[in-house]
Each structure stands twice: as structure tokens, then as C-alpha cells.
Task: inverse folding
């Protein structure tokens, strides 16, 4: 095992002394990430992530819950994320969106509060008919899908909390009445009081929850997608470059020299794989770290990030080794590797978000480490943790293991570790 | 002396092509043994089989008591290999290269560092140890290439044409290193197509051609195969007639044979100096202008020529 590490470390050292390789491995994805940041407007405004998302709020309800929702958008906690403005007219608000002057409009219809909290003196009336819930409209700007998605997520969270509060307070009152512990005459006022308490606490909880757990989900940063997208695109270069070094060592005479030392061919191959793995981990790790330090991208759960990097590089390294077995010369590995890098980049969502791809492309993307890796990084940046990465990590580990097995079989069959 | 290497009817075939055809020889502990032959004779293939890189098609060799076919890992501990081509990492420094290769031979820690220092001293590169290999001259690279083979103090060192493509000064340094290593007790198998190197270094020489060992022995034993005559070479002017001069020289006492070449005449005699004066006088009498004269003693080149009808560098 020691020799495997030594060979791997030697390869890592060599690649970090190769300026051309470093340019492609680190500088190119870094510059492309910056470019993408400018294209998407990431660098034209705030400090980190999406910031100052313009939202138009049309509060036609003007009662308890409508006001609470408007207050959420004006809260101190969301001050850096959204920039709300009020409008009395839904048509005018929609026009602002159509003219790309805001990311979304939230139209709170009249009667929204009453559709959830009945007016005093009506709830326990025999003729009371539960009103149909009036729905809030989120009028989204299709040109700003991410920002509009963030606004919608905030509204959804608010509605979900309100619904929880209403259900729990009504259930409590009914149980109290059935048990004879509460006079039905007092039920309505008690329910009103309970709901108001729940509403207040839950309204606070909405904000608190966003800050403590779901902040990343709301504060989604486009660079949290672009940076790993570019890193994984160029990871395919790195793994094919690593595979190429096996054939290069053979032609340069260092592979035969290794084989005449007391080192088995399995150790040499294992060491080369270790080198590919070390290099890939270093590359993705550096790019992820650089994007966090320089661009303020918040990657979320560090354990999740670390495990995801290892798993993604493992899956990609399997491809790198397989590519090597398909080539006869180092130049051929370079050519095949470049082609695979671009194809996987397209299929894996490095250039275009997979959600915008046809279903068959989305299915095909599952063969790429890019797609699984990006899936994982997106999950993390949206607030997920290591526990949420079971699917991509399992898929990447299976991918790597299958590809390694196939590559080793081909290596042996072709006698590639013989001179 | 004990044989450290016993080669037994070693054969290597690539399809129909026979690269090495049943060669057998022994190397005694402490000697320098040269395999002399032209390019493509099978020298590198032989070394590659002996160093366990290639499996022989048939036959075997025993090195330090271990079979190359049955105990390759044990053989690798006994041997050191200096390949014909430079086998170094150009982006690593000389020290880093030596440390890495030392680690591959199981060295570590202080003993590794000490040994690397010793080898750097031995190859004369202590001062440049921190420079990357790619900044070195060809000769310096060759020295590091040799140094790698010495790190684990092998009992038997294989050197496959280590002086190919380098300047005379570096070649001299390499030959001196080989002699120095041998003085320290290292056994060396040296392959070359330079007759002069084999003559200078070897206790015994094996001459290989077309994959077969066509002669084997000490230099004296080999040169005796072509007789103990000497050859006088007269280089003459471009307008002089070498044919008629050769004919006239054949009549001189003690001249065994005179033959014409391209602006030169070869005169074979038991002792070249004894016929020299008469030969020069005869040339003067015939108005032939002698530009220079060489005296060639029997050598391995002559042996190769005698055995194959070709020069070593043909």
C-alpha cells in the first residue's frame, strides 16, 4: 500500500509542476466560472449569492395574514436577499414583471386571511360554510428563473406554516369541546386566540427556519451551480490526463524501470490510479475552496462536500482509466479524453441545466459523473446535508467500481502493464 | 569464484521473429562481462529477460540463486538496471528522482537519505541535486540514470548501452564509474556496440549477433581466433594506384598479405614494425605518396569481422 501512495504522490507532484496541465485543470475552470458569473449577473450586484431580488407585493388582503406575508419580505433577515416594493394594482405589478423590472410579483388577493381564519362569530354557527381558500398568486419572471424560484420558495414556506397553524389550532379546539373542557360558545374566541399565537410564533419560525436551516435553500447562488459544473467538466480532463500518464511512462521508460524494481504490476497500476484520484481531489477541492473564499459561495455541509468530492472523483477516475485502455498512445488518450470531456460536459449539465434538457438526455446523463456530482452540489447548496446525498454518492461509487473493474480487466487482457 | 548469473538456453520469439536464439553463458561474481554486438543483435532483449521485464519464450536464467521465471521478485532484489533510454522524471530534481526510486526499492527514512547523498557524490552531482532533470545536459542525465541503478547496492548491475549518444567526456566518466563500481565488488553486465568500451572494461566478452552468442571468452582468447597477426594500414594519395602498390608489397619478406582498399593498402604481418621500413621504401620507389600509417593489433572488431564478415557498426 505504501508504494501505491508513493507512486500517487509522485504523480500529484509531477502534475503540479506541469504549467500547461495546471492551466487547464485550475485556471480554465476558474476563468470560465468567473465568466459565467458575469454572464449571469452574479458579479454585478451583491456580495454573495443572489441578492436584492426585486419583488413586487400587491396586498389586496390588508388583513392579518396578508400583512404577515408582506412583513416576511420586509424582515431584517431577508433584507439582503430581497428588495420588496408595494403596488396596489395587480395589473401594474404584472406589467413590471413583463418588462423585466422585477423577478416576481406576489399578489395576495382580498379575503385571503378570512379564507383561513373565519370572521368572529361565524365559525361555530350552524350555517357556517367553510370558505374556499383564496390562493396567493406568484407571477414569476421567466427570464429570472432562479430569483423567481427563491421568491416562490419563501411564499410556499409561509403558506405551509400558516396551514400547519390553522389545522393544529382547530384540531385542539374541537378536542377540547368534545371532551367537555371548553364551552362551544367560547370555542371561536379561543380558536382565534390560539391561531393568533400560532401565527405569530410560526411567522417568526418562518424567518428563523430560513436563517438556521433553510438559508441556503433560499439564498441559492448561481455560482454554486456554475463552479462545480466547470470543475467537473475539467475533472474529466484531469482523469484522462492521469490515464495518459500511464502510457506516457511506458514510452518514456519509467514504467519498465518501475517494473524491474521490486514492485508488482498491480502496485504500479494501483499507484497510477491513486495519482489520478489524488490529482482529481486536489483539483476539485481547490476550485471549491477558491470559489468559497473568492466569491463567497456557501457550499453547505462540509462533510457532505468532502464526501461528494471523493465520490465524484472516484467515479470520474474510473472513466479516466477506461479511456486509457481504449487508446494505444498518450496522444490518443488526450483526443478521446477531450471528446469525452465535452460530451459529458453537455450531457452532465455543465453547460446547460439538465432541467432544460429533454427527458432522454436527462436519463442518459446518469452515465456521467458530472450529472451526479452536480446533483449533489446543488443539493448541498440548497441546504442539504450528507444524509441527503445517498443517491448521488451511491451512484458515483457504483460507477467508479464498475469502470475500474472493466478497466483492470482490459489492462490485463491487453497486457498494458507489461512492456 | 561463484557464478552470480547462469543463463541457460534463453530464447525470445515474437511470432516468427527470433530475437534471442538459445544463448547460454555465465558471469562470475566480481567480473565485468560485456555483451558486444551491433544494433538489433539482441542485447537489450537479453537484458530485458534477465531483469524479468520480458518472459523468455523458453530457457531460464538463475541470478543469485533465483530463477528469473520462477522467482522474479527475488531476482529484482539482487539486480540493478541502468536502461539504454533515460528513465527519469524530468520535472523532478535529481534528488527527488533518487528518493522516489530508492523508495521503490524499499529504502526509507534516514538510510534512504544517506544513500541518496552517497550516490549523488558518486555520480558527481551533489551541487546540482536540487535542479530539475530537464535542466541537465545529456551526460548529467546519464549519470543520474546510472545513479538510480546503484541506490539499493545491487550485487549484479545490468548496464544497457549507457554511453549511447553522449559526449566523449561523459563517456569517459561513465567508463570510470563502471570500473570504480567493479573495484568496490559489484558485478557488471555491460552491453555495447562500441568495441573500445568492451576492450577497456571487460574481463570477458560475449559477442552476440542475430540473437546468437557467436563467441565468448577473454579478449585474448577471442583475438586468438583471428590469429596473432598485426595489420599495417597505409593511407595513400588520391591519385596513387593502390592495386599495383599492394601487388608489389606482396613480395616483401615477412609480409603475409597485402590488399588494396579505397586510397589505402593493408599489409598483414606477424610484427608490423619489422616490415614497416621495407614497405615505406617500396612505396617511395614507386612514387606513391604516403599520407599516414596505422598499425592495428588484433582486436574485437577484427574478431567480429572474422566471425560475421561485417563490421560492428554496419
Result:
Amino acid at each position: 500500500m505504501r508504494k501505491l501512495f508513493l507512486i500517487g504522490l509522485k504523480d500529484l507532484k509531477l502534475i503540479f509542476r506541469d504549467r500547461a496541465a495546471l492551466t487547464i485543470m485550475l485556471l480554465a475552470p476558474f476563468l470560465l466560472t468567473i465568466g459565467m458569473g458575469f454572464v449571469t449577473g452574479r458579479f454585478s450586484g451583491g456580495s454573495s449569492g443572489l441578492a436584492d431580488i426585486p419583488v413586487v407585493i400587491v396586498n389586496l388582503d390588508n388583513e392579518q395574514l396578508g400583512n404577515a406575508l408582506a412583513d416576511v419580505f420586509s424582515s431584517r433577515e431577508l433584507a439582503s436577499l430581497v428588495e420588496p416594493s408595494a403596488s396596489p394594482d395587480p395589473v401594474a405589478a404584472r406589467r413590471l414583471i413583463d418588462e423585466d423590472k422585477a423577478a416576481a410579483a406576489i399578489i395576495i388577493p382580498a379575503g385571503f386571511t378570512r379564507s383561513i381564519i373565519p370572521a368572529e362569530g361565524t365559525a361555530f354557527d350552524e350555517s357556517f360554510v367553510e370558505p374556499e381558500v383564496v390562493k396567493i398568486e406568484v407571477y414569476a419572471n421567466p427570464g429570472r428563473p432562479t430569483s423567481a424560484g427563491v421568491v416562490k420558495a419563501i411564499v410556499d414556506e409561509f403558506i405551509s406554516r400558516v396551514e400547519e397553524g390553522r389545522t393544529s389550532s382547530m384540531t385542539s379546539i374541537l378536542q377540547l369541546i368534545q371532551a367537555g373542557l371548553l364551552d362551544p360558545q367560547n370555542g371561536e374566541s379561543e380558536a382565534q386566540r390560539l391561531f393568533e399565537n400560532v401565527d405569530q410564533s410560526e411567522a417568526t419560525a418562518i424567518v428563523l427556519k430560513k436563517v438556521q436551516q433553510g438559508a441556503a435553500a433560499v439564498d441559492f447562488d448561481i455560482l454554486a451551480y456554475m463552479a462545480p459544473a466547470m470543475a467537473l467538466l475539467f475533472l474529466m480532463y484531469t482523469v484522462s490526463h492521469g490515464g495518459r500518464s500511464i502510457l506516457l511512462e511506458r514510452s518514456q521508460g519509467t514504467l519498465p524501470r518501475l517494473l524491474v524494481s521490486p514492485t508488482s504490476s498491480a502496485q504500479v497500476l494501483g499507484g497510477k490510479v491513486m495519482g489520478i484520484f489524488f490529482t482529481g481531489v486536489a483539483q476539485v477541492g481547490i476550485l471549491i475552496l477558491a470559489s468559497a473564499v473568492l466569491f463567497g459561495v456557501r457550499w453547505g455541509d462540509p462533510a457532505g462536500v468532502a464526501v461528494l468530492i471523493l465520490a465524484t472523483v472516484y467515479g470520474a477516475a474510473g472513466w479516466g482509466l477506461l479511456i486509457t485502455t481504449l487508446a494505444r498512445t498518450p496522444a490518443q488518450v488526450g483526443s478521446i479524453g477531450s471528446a469525452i470531456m465535452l460530451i459529458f460536459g453537455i450531457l452532465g449539465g455543465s453547460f446547460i441545466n439538465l432541467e432544460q434538457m429533454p427527458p432522454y438526455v436527462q436519463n442518459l446523463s446518469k452515465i456521467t459523473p458530472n450529472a451526479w456530482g452536480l446533483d449533489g452540489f446543488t443539493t448541498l447548496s440548497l441546504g442539504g446535508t450528507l444524509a441527503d446525498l445517498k443517491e448521488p454518492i451511491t451512484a458515483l461509487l457504483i460507477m467508479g467500481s464498475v469502470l475500474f473493474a472493466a478497466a483492470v480487466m482490459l489492462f490485463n487482457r491487453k497486457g498494458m502493464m507489461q512492456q | 569464484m561463484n557464478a552470480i548469473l547462469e543463463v541457460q538456453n534463453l530464447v525470445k520469439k515474437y511470432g516468427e521473429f527470433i530475437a534471442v536464439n538459445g544463448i547460454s553463458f555465465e558471469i562470475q561474481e566480481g567480473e565485468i562481462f560485456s555483451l558486444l554486438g551491433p544494433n538489433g543483435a539482441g542485447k537489450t532483449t537479453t537484458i530485458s529477460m534477465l531483469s524479468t521485464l520480458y518472459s523468455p519464450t523458453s530457457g531460464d536464467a538463475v541470478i543469485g540463486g533465483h530463477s528469473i521465471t520462477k522467482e522474479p521478485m527475488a531476482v529484482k532484489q539482487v539486480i540493478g538496471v541502468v536502461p539504454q533510454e533515460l528513465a527519469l522524471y524530468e520535472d523532478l530534481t535529481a534528488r527527488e528522482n533518487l528518493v522516489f526510486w530508492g523508495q521503490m526499492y524499499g529504502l526509507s527514512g534516514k538510510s534512504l537519505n544517506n544513500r541518496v547523498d552517497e550516490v549523488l557524490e558518486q555520480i558527481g552531482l551533489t551541487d546540482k541535486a536540487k535542479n530539475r532533470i530537464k535542466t541537465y545536459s545529456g551526460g548529467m542525465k546519464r549519470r543520474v540514470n546510472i545513479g538510480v541503478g546503484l541506490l539499493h547496492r545491487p550485487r549484479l548491475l545490468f548496464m544497457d548501452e549507457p554511453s549511447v549518444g553522449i559526449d566523449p567526456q561523459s563517456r569517459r566518466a561513465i567508463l570510470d564509474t563502471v570500473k570504480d563500481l567493479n573495484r568496490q565488488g559489484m558485478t557488471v553486465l555491460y552491453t555495447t556496440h562500441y568495441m573500445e568500451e568492451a576492450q577497456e572494461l571487460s574481463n570477458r566478452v560475449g559477442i552476440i549477433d542475430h540473437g546468437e552468442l557467436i563467441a565468448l571468452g577473454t579478449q585474448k582468447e577471442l583475438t586468438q581466433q583471428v590469429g596473432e597477426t598485426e595489420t599495417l594500414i597505409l593511407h595513400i594519395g588520391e591519385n596513387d594506384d593502390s592495386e599495383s602498390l599492394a601487388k608489389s608489397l606482396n613480395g616483401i619478406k615477412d609480409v603475409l598479405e597485402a590488399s588494396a582498399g579505397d586510397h589505402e593498402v593493408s599489409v598483414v604481418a606477424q610484427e608490423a614494425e619489422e616490415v614497416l621500413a621495407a614497405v615505406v621504401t617500396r612505396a617511395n620507389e614507386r612514387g606513391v605518396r604516403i599520407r599516414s600509417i596505422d598499425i592495428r593489433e588484433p582486436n574485437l572488431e577484427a574478431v567480429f569481422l572474422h566471425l560475421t564478415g561485417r563490421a560492428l557498426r554496419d
Summary: The interface with chain A takes residues 48, 51-54, 73, 76-77, 79, 81, 83, 85-89, 91-92, 96, 100-101, 103-106, 132, 148 of chain B (CB under 8 Å). The longest strand of chain B covers residues 3-14. The first helix of chain B runs from residue 43 to 50.
